[in-house]
Amino acid sequence: MTWVYLGIAIVFEVIFALGTNATKGFTRLWPSVLTLLAAASGIYTLSLALRELDVSVGYTLWTGLGGVGTVIFGAVIFKEKITSARLVSFAAIIGGAVLLRLTAV
C-alpha cells in the first residue's frame, strides 16, 4: 500500500499545483476549495506513505514526479510549451527517482 499512497499523493500534488494557477490568486471560490483540498489530501497521503518509506525517498519522489506531472498537464490544459530542455529535465528527474528507489534500503 505504501506505493499506492505515494502515487495518490503525487496525483494530489499535481492537482494542487494546477489548481493554484486556476484560482487566480485565490480569488475564485471553487478552484480555491479544490486546491486546498488537494493540498491537504496530498500531505495526508504522503504521510501514510512515509510510514514505510524514508522521508528522503518519499518526499523527493512526491515533489519530483509531481513536478513532472504538473509540467505535462500544464502543457495539455494551459497550452504551456514543452521544450527539448524540459524533456531532458524530465529524464533527469525520472532517472533520479528510479535511482533513489533502487538504492533505498
TrEMBL record:
InterPro entries: EmrE-like, Small_drug/metabolite_transptr, Small_multidrug_res. The keyword Membrane applies. It comes from the Bacteria. Coiled coil: none annotated. PANTHER family: GUANIDINIUM EXPORTER (PTHR30561:SF0), SMR FAMILY PROTON-DEPENDENT DRUG EFFLUX TRANSPORTER SUGE (PTHR30561). It comes from Actinomadura vinacea. It is a multi-pass membrane protein. This is Multidrug efflux SMR transporter.
